[in-house]
């Protein structure tokens, strides 16, 4: 006789462990922002908790957005998926326009809205995943049986990747591509197509690293940060020093010294 599955614990209709994980991640992140930025915030703004309050405002906005999308019917979200795709492409284009996009350390990844800015790629991830989920629901059979059905989302992903790499945002590109390929796999796309496209994807990413001087520098500094500890390896060596001081148990909340202007 088959055993019955464990009944989920619900809070107001939502999974307890999912909600608890979200609260835990948000709380840890808020504490880390506060402890890591006290000195810099006090120096730049005269308020040690400036970044703490700023992060708190963003969290409140994010929670309202979570509630908004939780109440939105999935079918309505699927209907909006094409609009979200267009918005995603538009956001990535806007980041590349001087005056609209905000440049930080040579990267055009942010859009400035008054006193606040946001990283367009974070919204784009949500929009593209929403679009792809809707596409796979409506065209699952086509994805499984027809090459064209498989290539359409791959082509869209390629366009998004090019725009991300123009910023440049190599990390978001890798995360989005890996997520999209995982979704195609779960939708039942034939393995043979992955064997064809996955090596191409890996080679393309490798070429992006090899042909970009700053990416090669980061890779080399990752291999041996102490070889260039005052330039390209500086941040990583400071991280290693922090781990060395704290060992397995750490130095206690707020007790780290790397935040005292040892890091940029």
TrEMBL record:
Transferase as UniProt keyword: yes
Catalyzed reactions: [GlcNAc-(1->4)-Mur2Ac(oyl-L-Ala-gamma-D-Glu-L-Lys-D-Ala-D-Ala)](n)-di-trans,octa-cis-undecaprenyl diphosphate + beta-D-GlcNAc-(1->4)-Mur2Ac(oyl-L-Ala-gamma-D-Glu-L-Lys-D-Ala-D-Ala)-di-trans,octa-cis-undecaprenyl diphosphate = [GlcNAc-(1->4)-Mur2Ac(oyl-L-Ala-gamma-D-Glu-L-Lys-D-Ala-D-Ala)](n+1)-di-trans,octa-cis-undecaprenyl diphosphate + di-trans,octa-cis-undecaprenyl diphosphate + H(+)
EC annotation from Swiss-Prot or TrEMBL: 2.4.99.28
Compartment list: Membrane
Keyword Membrane: yes
Single GO molecular function: peptidoglycan glycosyltransferase activity
Enzyme class per UniProt: transferase
Keywords assigned: Cell shape, Glycosyltransferase, Membrane, Peptidoglycan synthesis, Transferase, Transmembrane, Transmembrane helix
Coarse class of the protein's main subcellular location: membrane
Gene Ontology terms describing biological process: cell division; peptidoglycan biosynthetic process; regulation of cell shape
A Gene Ontology cellular-component term: plasma membrane
Membrane topology of the entry: Multi-pass membrane protein
Classification via Pfam families: FTSW_RODA_SPOVE
Transmembrane portions of the chain: 12-38, 50-70, 82-100, 147-165, 170-188, 194-214
Name recorded for this polypeptide: peptidoglycan glycosyltransferase
Organism from which the protein derives: marine metagenome
């Amino acid at each position: 006789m088959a055993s019955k599955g464990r009944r989920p614990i619900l809070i107001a209709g939502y999974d307890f462990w999912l909600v608890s994980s979200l609260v835990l991640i948000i709380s840890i992140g808020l504490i880390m922002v506060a402890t890591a930025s006290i000195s810099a915030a006090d120096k730049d703004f005269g308020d040690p908790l400036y970044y703490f309050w700023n992060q708190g405002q963003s969290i409140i906005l994010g929670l309202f957005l979570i509630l908004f999308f939780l109440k939105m019917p999935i079918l309505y979200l699927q209907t909006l998926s094409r609009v979200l795709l267009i918005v995603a492409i538009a956001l990535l284009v806007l980041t590349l326009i001087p005056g609209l996009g905000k440049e930080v350390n040579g990267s055009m990844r942010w859009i400035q809205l008054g006193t606040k800015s946001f990283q367009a790629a974070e919204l784009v991830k949500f929009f593209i995943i929403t679009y792809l989920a809707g596409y796979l629901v409506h065209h699952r059979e086509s994805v499984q049986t027809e090459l064209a059905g498989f290539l359409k989302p791959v082509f869209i992903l390629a366009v998004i990747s090019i725009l991300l790499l123009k910023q440049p945002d190599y990390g978001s590109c890798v995360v989005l591509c890996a997520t999209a390929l995982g979704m195609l796999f779960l939708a039942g796309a034939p393995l043979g197509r992955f064997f064809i496209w996955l090596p191409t994807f890996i080679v393309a990413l490798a070429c992006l690293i090899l042909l970009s001087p700053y990416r090669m520098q980061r890779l080399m500094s990752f291999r041996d940060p102490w070889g260039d500890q005052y330039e390209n390896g500086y941040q990583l060596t400071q991280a290693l020093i922090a781990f060395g001081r704290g060992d397995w148990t750490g130095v206690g909340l707020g007790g780290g010294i790397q935040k005292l202007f040892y890091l940029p």
